[in-house]
Amino acid sequence: MDERAALSMLETELEAAGDDAAVVGEQVITTDMLHERSDFPDGTSRYTAGWRAVGASLSDVAAMGAAATAAVAVYAAPEFDRTELTEFVEGARDVCELVGGAYVGGDLDNHVEFTVATTAIGRTDDPVLRSGAEPGDVVCVTGEFGRSAAGLELFRAGDRERGNELFQFTPRIAAGTALAPDATAMMDSSDGLARSLHQLAEASDCGFEIEFDAVPVADAVEEVADSDDERREAALFFGEDFELVFTVPEDAVETVAERSPVPITRIGRVTEQDLLIDGETLPDRGYTHG
Amino acid sequence: MDERAALSMLETELEAAGDDAAVVGEQVITTDMLHERSDFPDGTSRYTAGWRAVGASLSDVAAMGAAATAAVAVYAAPEFDRTELTEFVEGARDVCELVGGAYVGGDLDNHVEFTVATTAIGRTDDPVLRSGAEPGDVVCVTGEFGRSAAGLELFRAGDRERGNELFQFTPRIAAGTALAPDATAMMDSSDGLARSLHQLAEASDCGFEIEFDAVPVADAVEEVADSDDERREAALFFGEDFELVFTVPEDAVETVAERSPVPITRIGRVTEQDLLIDGETLPDRGYTHG
């Protein structure tokens, strides 16, 4: 079984699984594991690793429309270097403070590969699931896409400073809680915009019509993309951008855009079936987490 | 830096760290990572692995005197076998249900070694810390010691059935909540009774006088121990037993023993300084988590 098949199996087994975070009463909880090999390219600082690992879990809390309560992490490495560990904790703490949560520690473990397991908890009395989109709703996103794809290219080109800068994203907790009262379905874009749209459509049993020209692409992508194909790949399929993808009734779009602390962009509309981009089928592929 | 030095550094850095679980408002949260190599001996079923990994985090919740809310796990393995994964989830779910919590899923990850990262959350409005023991208090424990040491020997001897049975422990949530109103300091014994006593004494800035003959030793230890030394090693130093070690005022011992759903045994008393067992210094060693 590959990871995706195994995840589907678990969703069938466990009632609370299958969304960005599990809901338990008024709490949400989510956990994730990241590795040096697949998630932290050469040049990623331990500060960025702490920020990004904990940020990824906070992004799942945001995707439920929940406020952030706290996060913990297991830091597993072949050895414990004081400076690296301190930087990791600072990154983890800073990203939590940025979104109003508390980083409250965790555990250490010896491991052959640098590996981080993070968990975040949040609270909401009305979680936004992936499953509420209705035909006629509008499809929107927060922020811009392609930052992480651009960051990876910059790391490859040896520009550690800008790579690290682009890899430190803002988990959309503030936007998520602002959108929650009106959003009909929501998730984060960690596996890529295309995969997220497919997952939202499947969970809501609907289709989408997306316009690629409407998708907000990060300026950094222009610096590293040599062609329209590369630009499209970075924005739609690369993933790891941790923006929110959500649906909202037509008459609420303006209100949520005003309420949101980050730019909201309308990229399409909800239909009865089929996932189309500029009239053609949108491939269901994206970032496969290692 | 070794793991223990690194943990001390983190405790200085992070105010909420340093106890069995971090306290955030009325919630407690704890996370842990276990590995095939160091934590799951040959013969451990995936059901037992799920039970034990999630149980270890629930034990940390119990050590705060908190009720269990929920747990999640990241299951990382070289490949995902449907039967193994299902058994793991069943073990995780059963141990949660046993203590009134919910197992709400988690994440999957590809990893060279079978590795599990678990997180549990609980709730209490009055957490019991490690730091409240006072001279004159009595030192008590729940249950029996040496089960895991005996389990490991049975695995080595090829008795998988009994090894797995001994490795499935009951996280002391019910006992912990029953003791919480009176316990002055508490932690779990995952690193071994000796290490736990040292950690409690250090956090409370006190000493203990322990009587070895009073320490309840599991019957299974008698089957596998060939000498008094081996018996002592299993009960005091091996660890991984997940019982509660706590202090309580002399006049509350009887009440808590009556209130607790598992046997409570008095093993010594709190003094001003020094950690003695039968009048001699108790070595500060125990299970070092890999």
From TrEMBL, chains A, B:
Pfam families: AIRS (PF00586), AIRS_C (PF02769). Residues 134-274 form the PurM-like C-terminal domain. Reaction mechanism of ThiL seems to utilize a direct, inline transfer of the gamma-phosphate of ATP to TMP rather than a phosphorylated enzyme intermediate. This is Thiamine-monophosphate kinase. It comes from Natranaeroarchaeum aerophilus. Residues 18-123 form the PurM-like N-terminal domain. Mg(2+) 2 binds at D32, D60. Substrate binds at D39, E240, Y287. One of its GO terms (molecular function) is magnesium ion binding. Pathway: Cofactor biosynthesis; thiamine diphosphate biosynthesis; thiamine diphosphate from thiamine phosphate: step 1/1. Its EC number is 2.7.4.16. Mg(2+) 5 binds at D191. Mg(2+) 3 binds at D20, D60, D188.
